[in-house]
Design a protein that fits this description.
Length: 297
């Protein structure tokens, strides 16, 4: 089974034109849901973890959060939904409205967790104001997924000071049973992340947006193996919009290429470099078995 553990839904109406123009970014097109599901299935994907990306606090967009429940209801056996919220309001206060929404998505909608993006929201993940969200997620045994990595776009979009993994260390100490996923293997601090994962069995990561650096990715997966955390690493496409960024006009081919790289390309680089090879169990873990374990599929 192949599981795409991280992709996004978009709706143009959820983006603010003035804000995007200031950032030099174009507004993505609406996600073609039926087409996207077919692209994923054509690549052999059995299930996909899907989310919007709430960035209303600073950047006035939710990506497509309002579209998420509708999409899940249409494809309940294929999509695994995570809500996305800004836990602080524009005045740095506890965001009660979003907290109530988070609780509703878990208790009533059947969502499996929530995406938080501290660097985009310009707040720290260890801010005690955010802790009620962690307490609820730990109680319900649902996933907190973080963008806790550097941003490849304009620096102002996601300042690095809010992505530091030292901040995450406080969270895993204070919430030892909290299920956490760190996107992008914590790029570029991946070895630091693996140390934290070795200390916390509830800390997971995904490979989203790493395939354009194949040697770097392979070496970091070798490190993950050395640290004994290879069974908590998951394939993810981080699909946002076709024809932009890492995505071509034919995303199903992108998905197929990245899945093929994990199946065979990793070991080809390992053989050339004299690094330890990955077993079939480890590769199948990346592709879906690890995500299946996290989400109790």
């Amino acid at each position: 089974m192949i599981i795409d553990s991280h992709l996004h839904l978009n709706q143009k109406k959820c983006f603010d034109l003035e804000t995007n123009e200031k950032l030099g970014l174009k507004i993505p097109e609406d996600t073609p849901l039926d087409v996207l599901v077919q692209w994923l299935k054509d690549a052999g994907v059995s299930k996909a973890v899907v989310m919007g990306q709430d960035m209303t606090r600073i950047w006035k967009t939710t990506f497509g959060e309002e579209y998420l429940r509708e999409s899940y209801l249409k494809y309940p056996d294929f999509l695994i939904p995570l809500a996305s919220i800004e836990p602080l309001d524009e005045y740095n206060r506890f965001n009660e409205k979003k907290f109530l929404y988070f609780k509703k998505t878990i208790n009533e909608y059947g969502f499996r967790g929530v995406l938080l993006t501290p660097p985009y929201g310009h707040y720290c993940s260890n801010d005690k104001t955010v802790y009620p969200f962690y307490e609820f997620a730990q109680e319900k045994r649902v996933v907190i997924q973080y963008h806790h990595s550097a941003q490849s776009g304009p620096a102002i979009l996601a300042p690095t000071q809010y992505a530091s993994l030292y901040l995450l260390n406080d969270v895993i100490i204070d919430f030892p049973q909290l299920k956490i996923v760190i996107e992008h293997i914590g790029y570029p601090w991946s070895e630091h992340l693996f140390v934290l994962m070795a200390n916390d069995k509830n800390l997971w990561t995904d490979l989203a947006m790493t395939y354009s650096r194949p040697v770097w990715l392979t070496w970091n997966l070798v490190l993950a193996k050395e640290y004994g955390v290879i069974d908590r690493v998951m394939y993810a496409s981080d699909y946002v919009v076709f024809g932009d960024g890492l995505f071509s006009d034919h995303p199903q081919k992108d998905f197929q290429k990245w899945i093929s790289f994990l199946r065979t390309g990793l070991n080809e680089i390992c053989e050339k470099s004299g690094w330890p090879l990955f077993s079939s169990d480890e590769i199948n873990g990346f592709l879906g078995n690890n995500a299946a374990k996290l989400y109790n599929l």
